[in-house]
Protein backbone atom coordinates (compact mmCIF):
# COMPACT_ATOMS: atom_id res chain seq x y z
CA UNK A 1 0.00 0.00 0.00
CA UNK A 2 2.97 2.29 0.60
CA UNK A 3 3.99 1.80 -3.03
CA UNK A 4 0.51 2.84 -4.17
CA UNK A 5 0.68 6.00 -2.04
CA UNK A 6 4.16 6.78 -3.35
CA UNK A 7 3.20 6.38 -7.02
CA UNK A 8 -0.05 8.29 -6.48
CA UNK A 9 1.90 11.13 -4.86
CA UNK A 10 4.33 11.28 -7.79
CA UNK A 11 1.51 11.80 -10.30
CA UNK A 12 -1.49 13.06 -8.30
CA UNK A 13 -4.87 12.72 -9.93
CA UNK A 14 -3.65 10.35 -12.63
CA UNK A 15 -6.22 7.63 -13.21
CA UNK A 16 -3.80 5.39 -15.09
CA UNK A 17 -1.01 5.72 -12.52
CA UNK A 18 -3.37 4.84 -9.68
CA UNK A 19 -4.55 1.66 -11.38
CA UNK A 20 -0.99 0.80 -12.41
CA UNK A 21 0.17 1.16 -8.80
CA UNK A 22 -2.60 -1.07 -7.47
CA UNK A 23 -1.89 -3.65 -10.17
CA UNK A 24 1.80 -3.52 -9.33
CA UNK A 25 1.00 -4.35 -5.71
CA UNK A 26 -1.52 -7.12 -6.43
CA UNK A 27 0.26 -9.07 -9.21
CA UNK A 28 2.58 -10.92 -6.82
CA UNK A 29 -0.32 -12.80 -5.23
CA UNK A 30 -1.49 -14.03 -8.65
CA UNK A 31 2.04 -15.00 -9.62
CA UNK A 32 2.65 -17.14 -6.55
CA UNK A 33 -0.65 -19.00 -6.71
CA UNK A 34 -0.56 -19.60 -10.47
CA UNK A 35 3.06 -20.72 -10.37
CA UNK A 36 2.43 -23.22 -7.57
CA UNK A 37 -0.66 -24.69 -9.24
CA UNK A 38 1.01 -24.79 -12.64
CA UNK A 39 4.00 -26.67 -11.28
CA UNK A 40 1.67 -29.32 -9.87
CA UNK A 41 -0.22 -29.59 -13.18
CA UNK A 42 2.95 -29.77 -15.28
CA UNK A 43 4.35 -32.64 -13.23
CA UNK A 44 1.14 -34.70 -13.48
CA UNK A 45 1.14 -37.99 -15.41
CA UNK A 46 -1.64 -36.74 -17.71
CA UNK A 47 0.51 -33.81 -18.79
CA UNK A 48 3.49 -36.10 -19.41
CA UNK A 49 1.36 -38.43 -21.52
CA UNK A 50 -0.01 -35.54 -23.60
CA UNK A 51 3.48 -34.16 -24.08
CA UNK A 52 4.80 -37.54 -25.22
CA UNK A 53 1.92 -37.87 -27.68
CA UNK A 54 3.13 -34.67 -29.32
CA UNK A 55 0.38 -32.21 -28.42
CA UNK A 56 1.26 -28.52 -28.67
CA UNK A 57 1.65 -25.98 -25.91
CA UNK A 58 -1.75 -24.40 -26.48
CA UNK A 59 -3.46 -27.78 -26.19
CA UNK A 60 -1.54 -28.58 -23.00
CA UNK A 61 -2.51 -25.22 -21.54
CA UNK A 62 -6.16 -25.55 -22.55
CA UNK A 63 -6.62 -29.16 -21.43
CA UNK A 64 -4.36 -29.49 -18.39
CA UNK A 65 -3.08 -26.23 -16.94
CA UNK A 66 -6.08 -23.88 -17.25
CA UNK A 67 -8.66 -26.29 -15.69
CA UNK A 68 -6.43 -26.79 -12.65
CA UNK A 69 -5.74 -23.06 -12.24
CA UNK A 70 -9.10 -21.59 -13.30
CA UNK A 71 -11.04 -21.66 -10.01
CA UNK A 72 -8.17 -20.20 -8.02
CA UNK A 73 -7.53 -17.43 -10.55
CA UNK A 74 -11.21 -16.45 -10.64
CA UNK A 75 -11.38 -16.43 -6.84
CA UNK A 76 -8.24 -14.31 -6.65
CA UNK A 77 -9.65 -11.94 -9.27
CA UNK A 78 -12.82 -11.41 -7.25
CA UNK A 79 -10.89 -10.82 -4.02
CA UNK A 80 -8.46 -8.59 -5.91
CA UNK A 81 -11.33 -6.47 -7.24
CA UNK A 82 -12.67 -6.04 -3.70
CA UNK A 83 -9.21 -5.11 -2.43
CA UNK A 84 -8.77 -2.64 -5.29
CA UNK A 85 -12.06 -0.93 -4.47
CA UNK A 86 -11.05 -0.59 -0.83
CA UNK A 87 -7.61 0.67 -1.81
CA UNK A 88 -9.04 3.28 -4.20
CA UNK A 89 -11.55 4.43 -1.59
CA UNK A 90 -8.92 4.71 1.13
CA UNK A 91 -6.51 6.58 -1.14
CA UNK A 92 -9.31 8.94 -2.16
CA UNK A 93 -10.19 9.45 1.50
CA UNK A 94 -6.74 10.86 2.25
CA UNK A 95 -6.82 13.14 -0.86
CA UNK A 96 -4.01 11.33 -2.66
CA UNK A 97 -6.14 9.64 -5.32
CA UNK A 98 -8.27 11.16 -8.02
CA UNK A 99 -9.02 14.88 -7.88
CA UNK A 100 -12.48 16.40 -7.09
CA UNK A 101 -14.13 16.67 -10.52
CA UNK A 102 -13.90 12.88 -10.82
CA UNK A 103 -16.50 10.85 -8.90
CA UNK A 104 -14.69 8.56 -6.50
CA UNK A 105 -16.16 6.87 -3.42
CA UNK A 106 -13.45 7.81 -0.90
CA UNK A 107 -13.49 11.40 -2.09
CA UNK A 108 -17.28 11.49 -1.77
CA UNK A 109 -17.00 10.46 1.88
CA UNK A 110 -14.52 13.27 2.56
CA UNK A 111 -16.64 15.86 0.78
CA UNK A 112 -19.73 14.83 2.75
CA UNK A 113 -18.05 14.90 6.19
CA UNK A 114 -18.81 18.63 6.82
CA UNK A 115 -22.53 17.87 6.48
CA UNK A 116 -22.47 14.99 8.95
CA UNK A 117 -23.89 17.04 11.85
CA UNK A 118 -26.88 18.27 9.85
CA UNK A 119 -27.61 15.15 7.80
CA UNK A 120 -25.76 12.05 9.04
CA UNK A 121 -27.61 9.76 6.60
CA UNK A 122 -26.05 11.48 3.60
CA UNK A 123 -22.61 10.03 4.33
CA UNK A 124 -24.12 6.55 4.29
CA UNK A 125 -24.58 6.59 0.51
CA UNK A 126 -20.93 6.21 -0.54
CA UNK A 127 -20.23 3.96 2.45
CA UNK A 128 -23.09 1.64 1.52
CA UNK A 129 -21.86 1.63 -2.09
CA UNK A 130 -18.37 0.60 -0.95
CA UNK A 131 -19.83 -2.03 1.37
CA UNK A 132 -22.11 -3.48 -1.30
CA UNK A 133 -19.36 -3.61 -3.94
CA UNK A 134 -16.90 -5.32 -1.60
CA UNK A 135 -19.56 -7.70 -0.28
CA UNK A 136 -20.64 -8.56 -3.82
CA UNK A 137 -17.12 -9.37 -4.95
CA UNK A 138 -16.46 -11.42 -1.80
CA UNK A 139 -19.67 -13.40 -2.34
CA UNK A 140 -18.67 -13.90 -5.97
CA UNK A 141 -15.29 -15.19 -4.81
CA UNK A 142 -17.01 -17.63 -2.47
CA UNK A 143 -19.12 -18.98 -5.33
CA UNK A 144 -16.10 -19.37 -7.61
CA UNK A 145 -14.70 -22.16 -5.46
Automatic annotation (TrEMBL):
GO terms for cellular component: plasma membrane. It comes from the Bacteria. Its main location: membrane. Residues 1-141 form the ABC transmembrane type-1 domain. GO terms for molecular function: dipeptide transmembrane transporter activity. Pfam families: BPD_transp_1. It is a multi-pass membrane protein. Belongs to the binding-protein-dependent transport system permease family. This is Dipeptide transport system permease protein dppC. It comes from Nitrincola nitratireducens.
